[in-house]
Design a protein that fits this description.
3-stranded mixed beta sheet, GMP Synthetase, Chain A, domain 3, alpha+beta, 76 residues
């Protein structure tokens, strides 16, 4: 899942070399933390959070295929 998120995020931002993605696994779910340049934050979130919701939906659908729970957190 980390690779999927990385491909999506790097395609959206102007500074792909500043993208940091960490994956943390708990017993119940996997949390993917995304950190981008402050200049690119708006591109990841989108108007009214539409892009962020779309990224989460794609990751959730891919995770459901493997019977896993995955959430995507966008950090400041």
């Amino acid at each position: 899942m980390k690779d999927l998120v990385e491909v999506i995020i790097k395609a959206l931002v102007d500074k792909p070399d500043e993208v940091e993605i960490n994956e943390k696994e708990d017993k119940e779910q996997t949390v993917i933390e995304v950190k981008v340049s402050p200049d690119d934050m708006g591109k990841i979130i989108g108007k009214q959070g539409r892009i962020a919701k779309a990224i989460r939906a794609v990751v959730k659908a891919a995770a459901a295929k493997d019977d896993k729970k995955v959430s995507v957190d966008i950090l400041d």
